[in-house]
What does this fold into?
Amino acid sequence: MRTTVGIIGAGPAGLLLARLLHRAGIESVVLESRDRAYVERRQRAGILEQGTVDVLRAAGAGERMDREGLRHDGIELRFDRRRHRVDFPGLTGGRSVTVYAQTEVCKDLIALQLEEGGPLLFEAEALAVEGAEGDRPRIPFRYQGREDVLECEYAVGCDGFWGVARKAFPGGVSRVFERSYPYAWLGILADVAPSHDELVYARHERGFALLSMRSPAVSRLYLQVPAGTDAGQWGDEEIWDELERRLETDDDWRLERGPITQKSVTPMRSFVHEPMRHGRLFLAGDAAHIVPPTGAKGLNLAAGDVVTLARALVHERETGSPELLDAYSVTCLRRVWQAERFSYDMTTLLHRAPDATPFDARLQRARLERITSSRAAETDLAEAYTGFPLA
It folds into this structure.
Protein backbone atom coordinates (compact mmCIF):
# COMPACT_ATOMS: atom_id res chain seq x y z
CA MET A 1 0.00 0.00 0.00
CA ARG A 2 1.32 3.46 -0.92
CA THR A 3 0.31 7.01 -0.11
CA THR A 4 1.75 10.48 0.33
CA VAL A 5 1.23 10.83 4.09
CA GLY A 6 0.94 7.82 6.38
CA ILE A 7 -0.87 8.74 9.60
CA ILE A 8 -0.71 6.52 12.68
CA GLY A 9 -3.67 7.08 15.01
CA ALA A 10 -7.29 8.15 14.50
CA GLY A 11 -7.60 10.47 17.45
CA PRO A 12 -8.35 14.16 16.89
CA ALA A 13 -4.80 14.87 15.65
CA GLY A 14 -4.70 12.14 13.02
CA LEU A 15 -8.27 12.66 11.87
CA LEU A 16 -7.96 16.44 11.60
CA LEU A 17 -4.67 16.13 9.72
CA ALA A 18 -6.27 13.70 7.25
CA ARG A 19 -9.16 16.11 6.78
CA LEU A 20 -6.90 19.12 6.17
CA LEU A 21 -4.78 17.16 3.70
CA HIS A 22 -7.86 15.91 1.85
CA ARG A 23 -9.12 19.48 1.46
CA ALA A 24 -5.70 20.42 0.06
CA GLY A 25 -5.64 17.52 -2.39
CA ILE A 26 -2.89 15.55 -0.61
CA GLU A 27 -3.41 11.80 -0.24
CA SER A 28 -3.19 10.08 3.13
CA VAL A 29 -3.95 6.77 4.83
CA VAL A 30 -4.90 6.58 8.52
CA LEU A 31 -4.07 3.47 10.58
CA GLU A 32 -5.92 3.06 13.90
CA SER A 33 -5.25 0.11 16.19
CA ARG A 34 -8.66 0.28 17.94
CA ASP A 35 -12.10 -0.32 16.49
CA ARG A 36 -14.40 2.53 15.50
CA ALA A 37 -16.70 2.11 18.51
CA TYR A 38 -13.80 2.50 20.92
CA VAL A 39 -12.51 5.65 19.22
CA GLU A 40 -15.97 7.21 19.23
CA ARG A 41 -16.66 6.60 22.91
CA ARG A 42 -13.35 7.21 24.73
CA GLN A 43 -13.79 10.21 27.01
CA ARG A 44 -11.16 12.91 26.78
CA ALA A 45 -11.03 16.70 26.64
CA GLY A 46 -14.07 18.84 26.09
CA ILE A 47 -12.90 22.46 25.73
CA LEU A 48 -12.09 23.84 22.27
CA GLU A 49 -10.12 27.05 21.94
CA GLN A 50 -11.23 29.72 19.52
CA GLY A 51 -8.56 28.71 17.02
CA THR A 52 -9.58 25.04 17.12
CA VAL A 53 -13.21 25.98 16.54
CA ASP A 54 -12.21 28.14 13.58
CA VAL A 55 -10.11 25.33 12.07
CA LEU A 56 -12.91 22.77 12.38
CA ARG A 57 -15.34 25.15 10.69
CA ALA A 58 -12.90 25.89 7.88
CA ALA A 59 -12.36 22.15 7.39
CA GLY A 60 -16.09 21.56 6.96
CA ALA A 61 -16.35 19.78 10.32
CA GLY A 62 -18.16 22.43 12.32
CA GLU A 63 -21.85 21.94 11.51
CA ARG A 64 -22.80 19.75 14.48
CA MET A 65 -20.32 21.54 16.76
CA ASP A 66 -22.04 24.86 16.02
CA ARG A 67 -25.44 23.28 16.60
CA GLU A 68 -24.72 21.30 19.76
CA GLY A 69 -21.57 22.84 21.25
CA LEU A 70 -21.82 25.31 24.11
CA ARG A 71 -20.05 28.62 23.60
CA HIS A 72 -18.52 29.94 26.82
CA ASP A 73 -17.47 33.55 27.18
CA GLY A 74 -15.70 33.11 30.49
CA ILE A 75 -14.81 30.99 33.48
CA GLU A 76 -15.34 31.52 37.18
CA LEU A 77 -12.56 31.40 39.77
CA ARG A 78 -13.51 30.54 43.35
CA PHE A 79 -11.42 30.85 46.49
CA ASP A 80 -12.17 31.77 50.10
CA ARG A 81 -15.89 31.24 49.30
CA ARG A 82 -15.68 34.15 46.82
CA ARG A 83 -16.53 34.17 43.11
CA HIS A 84 -14.79 36.04 40.27
CA ARG A 85 -15.76 35.80 36.60
CA VAL A 86 -13.08 36.14 33.88
CA ASP A 87 -14.69 37.76 30.82
CA PHE A 88 -12.98 36.27 27.76
CA PRO A 89 -14.37 38.45 24.93
CA GLY A 90 -13.89 41.64 26.93
CA LEU A 91 -10.25 40.82 27.64
CA THR A 92 -9.22 39.23 24.33
CA GLY A 93 -11.00 41.24 21.66
CA GLY A 94 -13.90 38.82 21.23
CA ARG A 95 -12.41 35.32 21.67
CA SER A 96 -14.25 32.54 23.48
CA VAL A 97 -14.12 28.75 23.96
CA THR A 98 -16.61 26.01 23.10
CA VAL A 99 -17.60 23.00 25.19
CA TYR A 100 -17.75 20.10 22.72
CA ALA A 101 -16.37 16.72 23.74
CA GLN A 102 -13.43 15.12 21.95
CA THR A 103 -15.62 12.08 21.30
CA GLU A 104 -17.96 14.26 19.26
CA VAL A 105 -15.09 15.86 17.33
CA CYS A 106 -13.84 12.37 16.44
CA LYS A 107 -17.30 11.21 15.37
CA ASP A 108 -17.63 14.19 13.03
CA LEU A 109 -14.18 13.75 11.51
CA ILE A 110 -14.57 9.97 11.12
CA ALA A 111 -17.86 10.40 9.26
CA LEU A 112 -16.27 12.93 6.90
CA GLN A 113 -13.18 10.80 6.32
CA LEU A 114 -15.18 7.69 5.51
CA GLU A 115 -17.48 9.62 3.19
CA GLU A 116 -15.00 11.88 1.41
CA GLY A 117 -11.40 11.19 2.41
CA GLY A 118 -8.74 8.56 1.92
CA PRO A 119 -8.54 5.16 3.59
CA LEU A 120 -9.22 5.04 7.33
CA LEU A 121 -8.41 1.54 8.60
CA PHE A 122 -9.67 0.56 12.05
CA GLU A 123 -8.09 -2.35 13.91
CA ALA A 124 -4.94 -1.74 11.88
CA GLU A 125 -2.03 -1.93 14.30
CA ALA A 126 1.11 -0.04 13.28
CA LEU A 127 4.11 -2.11 14.32
CA ALA A 128 6.96 0.34 13.70
CA VAL A 129 8.18 3.21 11.56
CA GLU A 130 11.15 2.29 9.39
CA GLY A 131 13.40 4.31 7.12
CA ALA A 132 12.48 7.74 8.45
CA GLU A 133 15.89 9.04 7.36
CA GLY A 134 15.26 8.05 3.73
CA ASP A 135 12.90 9.25 1.01
CA ARG A 136 10.10 6.72 1.64
CA PRO A 137 9.38 5.76 5.23
CA ARG A 138 7.68 2.41 5.77
CA ILE A 139 5.02 1.57 8.35
CA PRO A 140 4.59 -2.19 8.84
CA PHE A 141 1.10 -2.89 10.21
CA ARG A 142 -1.20 -5.79 11.06
CA TYR A 143 -4.72 -5.73 9.58
CA GLN A 144 -7.41 -8.39 9.27
CA GLY A 145 -5.09 -11.13 10.45
CA ARG A 146 -2.20 -10.42 8.09
CA GLU A 147 0.80 -8.12 7.95
CA ASP A 148 1.23 -5.41 5.34
CA VAL A 149 3.39 -2.34 4.79
CA LEU A 150 2.32 1.25 4.18
CA GLU A 151 4.92 3.12 2.11
CA CYS A 152 4.70 6.90 2.21
CA GLU A 153 6.60 10.09 1.53
CA TYR A 154 5.96 11.32 5.08
CA ALA A 155 5.00 9.44 8.26
CA VAL A 156 3.11 11.15 11.08
CA GLY A 157 2.80 9.71 14.57
CA CYS A 158 -0.54 10.76 16.06
CA ASP A 159 -0.60 7.57 18.12
CA GLY A 160 -0.40 8.95 21.64
CA PHE A 161 2.10 8.55 24.45
CA TRP A 162 2.34 4.76 24.17
CA GLY A 163 2.49 4.58 20.36
CA VAL A 164 5.26 3.27 18.13
CA ALA A 165 6.13 6.49 16.29
CA ARG A 166 8.18 8.14 19.02
CA LYS A 167 10.13 4.89 19.50
CA ALA A 168 11.50 5.33 15.97
CA PHE A 169 13.54 8.37 17.10
CA PRO A 170 17.17 7.38 17.78
CA GLY A 171 18.18 7.65 21.42
CA GLY A 172 20.83 10.23 20.67
CA VAL A 173 18.24 12.48 19.03
CA SER A 174 15.49 12.42 21.66
CA ARG A 175 15.33 14.78 24.61
CA VAL A 176 12.56 14.32 27.16
CA PHE A 177 11.28 16.85 29.69
CA GLU A 178 8.68 15.70 32.20
CA ARG A 179 7.09 16.27 35.57
CA SER A 180 4.70 14.06 37.55
CA TYR A 181 2.29 15.59 40.05
CA PRO A 182 1.44 14.00 43.43
CA TYR A 183 -2.28 14.30 42.81
CA ALA A 184 -4.87 13.23 40.25
CA TRP A 185 -8.43 14.11 39.21
CA LEU A 186 -11.42 12.00 40.19
CA GLY A 187 -13.88 12.78 37.39
CA ILE A 188 -17.58 12.01 37.18
CA LEU A 189 -20.31 12.26 34.59
CA ALA A 190 -23.74 12.88 36.10
CA ASP A 191 -27.23 13.06 34.63
CA VAL A 192 -28.03 16.48 36.05
CA ALA A 193 -28.10 19.94 34.52
CA PRO A 194 -24.90 21.92 35.24
CA SER A 195 -25.13 24.04 38.37
CA HIS A 196 -23.50 26.97 36.60
CA ASP A 197 -23.56 28.07 32.97
CA GLU A 198 -19.75 28.36 32.73
CA LEU A 199 -16.81 26.36 34.06
CA VAL A 200 -15.92 26.91 37.71
CA TYR A 201 -12.33 26.47 38.93
CA ALA A 202 -12.17 26.30 42.73
CA ARG A 203 -9.17 26.46 45.06
CA HIS A 204 -9.99 25.06 48.49
CA GLU A 205 -7.96 24.02 51.52
CA ARG A 206 -9.19 20.44 50.98
CA GLY A 207 -8.07 20.48 47.34
CA PHE A 208 -9.09 21.62 43.86
CA ALA A 209 -12.54 21.15 42.32
CA LEU A 210 -13.86 21.82 38.82
CA LEU A 211 -17.45 22.17 37.69
CA SER A 212 -17.79 21.51 33.97
CA MET A 213 -20.37 20.01 31.61
CA ARG A 214 -20.91 17.86 28.53
CA SER A 215 -24.35 19.20 27.57
CA PRO A 216 -27.24 21.20 29.07
CA ALA A 217 -28.38 17.97 30.75
CA VAL A 218 -25.06 16.28 31.67
CA SER A 219 -22.54 17.60 34.20
CA ARG A 220 -18.83 16.80 34.26
CA LEU A 221 -17.14 17.44 37.62
CA TYR A 222 -13.70 16.78 39.09
CA LEU A 223 -12.08 16.51 42.50
CA GLN A 224 -8.38 16.61 43.33
CA VAL A 225 -7.41 13.28 44.91
CA PRO A 226 -4.05 11.66 45.76
CA ALA A 227 -2.16 10.10 42.85
CA GLY A 228 -2.98 6.41 42.51
CA THR A 229 -6.52 6.75 43.86
CA ASP A 230 -9.01 4.05 42.85
CA ALA A 231 -12.27 5.64 41.68
CA GLY A 232 -14.19 2.77 43.26
CA GLN A 233 -13.04 3.92 46.71
CA TRP A 234 -15.40 6.89 46.49
CA GLY A 235 -19.13 6.50 47.02
CA ASP A 236 -21.58 8.68 45.10
CA GLU A 237 -22.80 10.70 48.08
CA GLU A 238 -19.25 11.09 49.35
CA ILE A 239 -18.28 12.64 45.99
CA TRP A 240 -21.22 15.06 46.01
CA ASP A 241 -20.53 16.04 49.63
CA GLU A 242 -16.90 16.80 48.83
CA LEU A 243 -17.78 18.77 45.69
CA GLU A 244 -20.25 20.79 47.73
CA ARG A 245 -17.59 21.63 50.32
CA ARG A 246 -14.98 22.72 47.80
CA LEU A 247 -17.36 24.73 45.59
CA GLU A 248 -19.25 26.49 48.40
CA THR A 249 -19.71 30.27 48.27
CA ASP A 250 -21.03 32.99 50.56
CA ASP A 251 -24.07 33.70 48.36
CA ASP A 252 -27.10 31.52 47.60
CA TRP A 253 -25.43 29.37 44.88
CA ARG A 254 -26.18 25.66 45.25
CA LEU A 255 -24.73 22.50 43.70
CA GLU A 256 -27.37 20.31 42.04
CA ARG A 257 -26.95 16.55 42.50
CA GLY A 258 -27.95 13.73 40.20
CA PRO A 259 -27.22 10.11 39.25
CA ILE A 260 -23.50 9.48 38.61
CA THR A 261 -23.08 7.44 35.42
CA GLN A 262 -19.29 7.28 35.18
CA LYS A 263 -16.25 7.62 37.43
CA SER A 264 -12.60 7.74 36.41
CA VAL A 265 -9.23 8.93 37.69
CA THR A 266 -6.93 11.05 35.51
CA PRO A 267 -3.21 11.23 36.44
CA MET A 268 -1.51 14.60 36.26
CA ARG A 269 1.76 15.03 34.40
CA SER A 270 3.67 17.24 32.02
CA PHE A 271 5.74 15.74 29.19
CA VAL A 272 7.53 17.13 26.13
CA HIS A 273 9.60 15.22 23.58
CA GLU A 274 12.08 17.22 21.52
CA PRO A 275 12.41 17.35 18.60
CA MET A 276 9.03 16.64 17.05
CA ARG A 277 10.60 15.63 13.72
CA HIS A 278 13.20 13.12 12.66
CA GLY A 279 13.84 12.88 8.92
CA ARG A 280 10.44 12.31 7.31
CA LEU A 281 8.76 11.27 10.56
CA PHE A 282 6.71 13.88 12.43
CA LEU A 283 5.06 13.68 15.85
CA ALA A 284 1.79 15.39 16.72
CA GLY A 285 -0.46 15.53 19.78
CA ASP A 286 0.12 13.28 22.78
CA ALA A 287 2.89 11.41 20.96
CA ALA A 288 4.99 14.54 21.47
CA HIS A 289 3.58 16.29 24.53
CA ILE A 290 1.18 15.93 27.44
CA VAL A 291 -0.18 18.66 29.72
CA PRO A 292 -2.10 18.40 32.98
CA PRO A 293 -5.79 18.96 32.17
CA THR A 294 -6.16 22.10 34.27
CA GLY A 295 -5.50 24.40 31.32
CA ALA A 296 -7.67 22.48 28.80
CA LYS A 297 -4.81 22.41 26.29
CA GLY A 298 -4.33 18.78 25.17
CA LEU A 299 -6.69 18.54 22.21
CA ASN A 300 -5.97 22.13 21.23
CA LEU A 301 -2.22 21.54 21.10
CA ALA A 302 -2.86 18.56 18.84
CA ALA A 303 -4.91 20.76 16.52
CA GLY A 304 -2.12 23.33 16.43
CA ASP A 305 0.45 20.67 15.53
CA VAL A 306 -1.48 19.29 12.55
CA VAL A 307 -2.48 22.72 11.25
CA THR A 308 1.22 23.63 11.25
CA LEU A 309 2.14 20.36 9.52
CA ALA A 310 -0.62 20.58 6.92
CA ARG A 311 0.42 24.11 6.00
CA ALA A 312 4.03 22.99 5.69
CA LEU A 313 3.13 20.07 3.42
CA VAL A 314 1.00 22.29 1.20
CA HIS A 315 3.80 24.86 1.04
CA GLU A 316 6.31 22.20 0.01
CA ARG A 317 4.00 20.88 -2.71
CA GLU A 318 3.24 24.33 -4.11
CA THR A 319 6.70 25.87 -3.93
CA GLY A 320 9.10 22.93 -3.73
CA SER A 321 10.59 24.50 -0.61
CA PRO A 322 11.01 22.39 2.56
CA GLU A 323 11.41 25.54 4.65
CA LEU A 324 8.21 25.13 6.69
CA LEU A 325 8.70 21.39 7.11
CA ASP A 326 12.22 22.02 8.38
CA ALA A 327 10.81 24.54 10.87
CA TYR A 328 7.95 22.25 12.02
CA SER A 329 9.46 21.17 15.33
CA VAL A 330 10.66 24.63 16.35
CA THR A 331 7.35 26.23 15.34
CA CYS A 332 5.25 23.73 17.28
CA LEU A 333 7.46 23.67 20.34
CA ARG A 334 7.14 27.43 20.82
CA ARG A 335 3.40 26.97 21.25
CA VAL A 336 3.78 23.73 23.20
CA TRP A 337 5.99 25.30 25.83
CA GLN A 338 3.65 28.24 26.29
CA ALA A 339 0.81 25.77 26.84
CA GLU A 340 2.99 23.78 29.26
CA ARG A 341 3.75 26.98 31.15
CA PHE A 342 0.09 27.98 31.36
CA SER A 343 -1.05 24.50 32.38
CA TYR A 344 1.62 24.35 35.09
CA ASP A 345 0.64 27.80 36.34
CA MET A 346 -3.04 26.88 36.54
CA THR A 347 -2.27 23.56 38.21
CA THR A 348 0.01 24.96 40.91
CA LEU A 349 -2.33 27.94 41.40
CA LEU A 350 -5.36 25.81 42.28
CA HIS A 351 -4.18 22.45 43.69
CA ARG A 352 -3.03 21.78 47.22
CA ALA A 353 0.23 19.83 47.28
CA PRO A 354 0.50 17.08 49.93
CA ASP A 355 3.50 18.85 51.49
CA ALA A 356 2.06 22.37 51.17
CA THR A 357 3.05 24.81 53.90
CA PRO A 358 1.10 27.86 55.15
CA PHE A 359 3.53 29.94 53.08
CA ASP A 360 2.52 28.04 49.93
CA ALA A 361 -1.16 28.61 50.70
CA ARG A 362 -0.60 32.34 51.14
CA LEU A 363 1.24 32.51 47.81
CA GLN A 364 -1.69 30.82 46.04
CA ARG A 365 -4.10 33.33 47.53
CA ALA A 366 -1.82 36.21 46.55
CA ARG A 367 -1.66 34.94 42.97
CA LEU A 368 -5.46 34.66 42.84
CA GLU A 369 -5.83 38.14 44.34
CA ARG A 370 -3.52 39.46 41.63
CA ILE A 371 -5.59 37.88 38.84
CA THR A 372 -8.87 39.15 40.25
CA SER A 373 -7.62 42.70 40.88
CA SER A 374 -5.33 43.36 37.90
CA ARG A 375 -6.69 43.65 34.36
CA ALA A 376 -3.23 42.86 32.98
CA ALA A 377 -2.98 39.60 34.96
CA GLU A 378 -6.55 38.66 34.13
CA THR A 379 -5.93 39.36 30.43
CA ASP A 380 -2.89 37.10 30.46
CA LEU A 381 -5.04 34.24 31.79
CA ALA A 382 -7.86 34.91 29.31
CA GLU A 383 -5.51 35.07 26.31
CA ALA A 384 -3.84 31.81 27.26
CA TYR A 385 -7.09 30.00 28.03
CA THR A 386 -8.79 30.98 24.76
CA GLY A 387 -5.71 29.91 22.82
CA PHE A 388 -2.28 30.81 21.58
CA PRO A 389 -1.98 31.60 17.84
CA LEU A 390 -1.92 28.51 15.62
CA ALA A 391 0.63 29.94 13.19
Notes: The first strand starts at residue 2 and ends at 8. Residues 209 and 223 are 5 Å apart (CA to CA).
